[in-house]
Design brief:
198 residues; alpha+beta; Pectate Lyase C-like; 2 domains; two-stranded antiparallel sheet; 3 helices
Amino acid sequence: MKSLRTVFVQRGPIPRVLVVIGLVVLAACGDVEVTSESSDDIVATTTVEIVAPAEPTPTTTVETTTTTVPVTTTTVLDVICIKTTTCQYANLVGVDFSRLKLDFINFSVANLGGASFVGANLNNSIFIRADLSAVNFEGASLKNADMTASVLSAASFKGANLEGAVLCDVDLTTVLELTKAQLDQVKKFKTKGKVYCP
């Protein structure tokens, strides 16, 4: 900050009106000090502060990105198992397999909770002890698929083809949209009138 000091000295008589106007103008500029050495001399001193413009403070812009974490915890490596037809123990939660040809794939002990197999071809696939909770098999072909000891709670079989499928040691009380006609096509292992699972 810099200060500028200005001194005005007038000798001789000055009309009082001009003095008052001059003092008002000087007062608008800053601190004003008026002194008189005699009745005819008026000394007006004004101090004006000149403020240097402040340096702009650097601003930091932080870009934020919102990432929504998907419900599925499936990794790319888990999905690659489809190419090798061996998805045993894979974590395929919530994956959409709709309308894919997935016959002869081994999904034993895989976690497929919430996955979608709508209209998929799952003929001869193996789901032994797989978690099939809330899986949607609507319109899927499950001919000769083995679902022995799998978890089928809230799984939907609406319009699914279960011809020759093995549903052994499973709880069908919580399965959705499974008709008697579909259950009549299911293969069960029987010996001497008792149902058993291999």
